[in-house]
Amino acid sequence: MYTVEDWVRYGDELRRPLLVGPKLSKSTKLAIVGAGLSGLSIAFRIATKRPDIEIEILEKTERCGGTIETWSEGEWMCDVAVNAARPHPSFWRLASDLDLGDVFSQSNPRATSRWLFLNKKKSKLSLLTALKMGPVRMFRSIRSARSGGKSIGEIIPNQSVADAMTFGIVNDASHNVDADFLMPSMTKFGEEPPIKWSKIKKMMKQTYPLFTPTKGSIASFEGGMQTLIDALLDRLKQLSNVQIHYQQQYESPEQVALERNVPIDSVIWCAPLARTIEQYTELDVYAVGYASEDIANVPAGYGTLIPDQDIPVSGILHESDVHSSPRAPAGHRLFRVMAPSSRDGDDSKIRSSLKQILSNKEPALYKKIGQRKIPSYSPGYMSKLIKTERNFTRAGWFYSGVSVTHVVAEAERIAELF
Ligand SMILES: Cc1cc2nc3c(=O)[nH]c(=O)nc-3n(C[C@H](O)[C@H](O)[C@H](O)COP(=O)(O)OP(=O)(O)OC[C@H]3O[C@@H](n4cnc5c(N)ncnc54)[C@H](O)[C@@H]3O)c2cc1C
Fold first, then answer.
1. Which H/E stretch holds residue 338?
2. What are the phi and psi torsion angles at 314 (to 5°)?
3. Of all atoms in ligand 1, which is nearest to the CA of residue 395?
4. Which domain covers residue 325, as residue numbers?
5. Fewest beta carbons less than 10 Å away: which of 28, 162, 269, 357?
6. Cα 39 to middle of ligand 1, angstroms
7. φ, ψ for residue 272 (rounded to 5)?
8. Calpha distance 371→341 (Å, rounded)
9. C-beta of 407 in contact with ligand 1 (< 6 A)
């Protein structure tokens, strides 16, 4: 049972299982597989707490950051994947402990509006959207979700709204997404807090270092998410008990244990494990910029979700409206466009849908900046996770939850075991 203090430190993260090996904290040497945000932040947390533990990070590629990468060209700057963090004290603690307070700030309070592009029309997502779903139906669906293993499509009665949300978060249709994994607090997965959730939320609010985020805000780094990865790397390089090895591809935790000469309990696997290509969805990411006068019809906001699968674009984020640090040259605005591979869009289809949704003027910048794979979390995923065999530790977004806040909170929770 977690205490009130635990709940105030981690909030709803405590509903998520920690998939740690039973003897992990007895390790004298650790092998961490994967140098994404998860592997790097676990290494940082444990290495600073326990300088006596030797840590090897084993990364398949030649770079750190994994999914996270910030693209730039001249004064244009765009994150290929995550661009900001939603409020959680764990993430703020990491930014603070890395001395990133001067370059970490709250999103623009005027850029919170979200729109839904449906039936060729844009409408603002609001409480009204939820009411239109029928509050009674909604309440019944959420209650039924408490039996576990349901999809988001089953608990949110309006399919377009449900799809818009799940495409926006995990690039997948709502009937393919496990509600317990995406929203454990809504389905009441896991342990319940010992006191009222509203009280815990209030207490959590007092614990943010750097600044207290306002309701509905997110926060980001000057220089994009790469700033966080670079800061983690800088710190790890200064620690004599940490080594990073690149171009190290391991197939299994057993192979790591054998080749790095550590017990299996000392392996922390922060990478996919036994996933087939079908267990991912894929999307192309574009940076699209306009001269401000050519896009004056689009109000400042957070972004637009597009559930209609006949349109090649599933989401458009208003990058230069959202962040308080610049993402575009003066007199321009930057948008990030997500095009799922399942929608089969080529350049001409994407450009013509941008004309329909954003502006019929030609963009000043149109560039594919990357392609990303997102793990699929099919209904029942979370229930299976709690039954996972735990002779080694699994961490990262395949297990912790999809967002960087989950990954970072999990890293703190793991380090607390030492
Ligand atoms: C387009 C997109 C948008 C996103 N937007 C948001 C957002 O707005 N907010 C948010 O909170 N989150 C967002 N995310 C999610 C966020 O990016 C992830 O939560 C986070 O980056 C996951 O980090 P990780 O370390 O767990 O995994 P990864 O970043 O996947 O890192 C895994 C690492 O392991 C390495 N590896 C893989 N296999 C092996 C092997 N066999 N041996 C050795 N190394 C291996 C990889 O090369 C990689 O470096 C987004 C993701 C995408 C793709």
1. strand 332-340
2. -105, -20
3. 26
4. 280-375
5. 28
6. 10
7. -65, 155
8. 9
9. yes
Query: Is 325 in the same domain as 371?
Result: yes
Tokens at 281, concatenated: 């969805």
Tell me, yes or no, whether 197 lies in a domain.
Answer: no
- Pull the structure tokens for residue 358: 């954003």
Instruction: Please tell me the pTM assigned to this model.
Output: 0.96
How many domains does the chain contain in total? 3
* Atom of ligand 1 at shortest range from CA of 67: 29
pLDDT in tens, the chain (418 residues): 999 999 999 999 999 999 999 999 999 999 999 999 999 999 999 999 999 999 999 999 999 999 999 999 999 999 999 999 999 999 999 999 999 999 999 999 889 999 999 999 999 987 656 556 666 666 677 767 777 889 999 988 888 889 989 999 999 999 999 999 999 999 999 999 999 999 999 999 999 999 999 988 999 999 999 999 999 999 999 999 999 999 999 999 999 999 999 999 999 999 999 888 889 999 999 999 999 999 999 999 999 999 999 999 999 999 999 999 999 999 999 999 999 999 988 999 999 999 999 999 999 999 999 999 999 999 999 999 999 989 999 999 999 999 999 999 999 999 999 9
Q: 267 in ligand 1 pocket by Cβ < 6 Å?
A: no
Could you tell me the CATH number of the domain that includes residue 323?
3.90.660.20
- Any idea how long the chain is? 418
C-alpha dihedral (198, 202, 205, 206), degrees to nearest 10: -150
Q: With respect to residue 214, please indicate whether it lies within any of the assigned structural domains.
A: yes
CB 289 near ligand 1, within 6 Å: no
Cβ–ligand 1 distance for 368 under 6 Å, the answer no
Q: Say whether both 298 and 363 belong to one domain.
A: yes
Q: Name the residue with the closest Cα to ligand 1, atom 20.
A: 404
Q: Are residues 44 and 163 in the same domain?
A: no
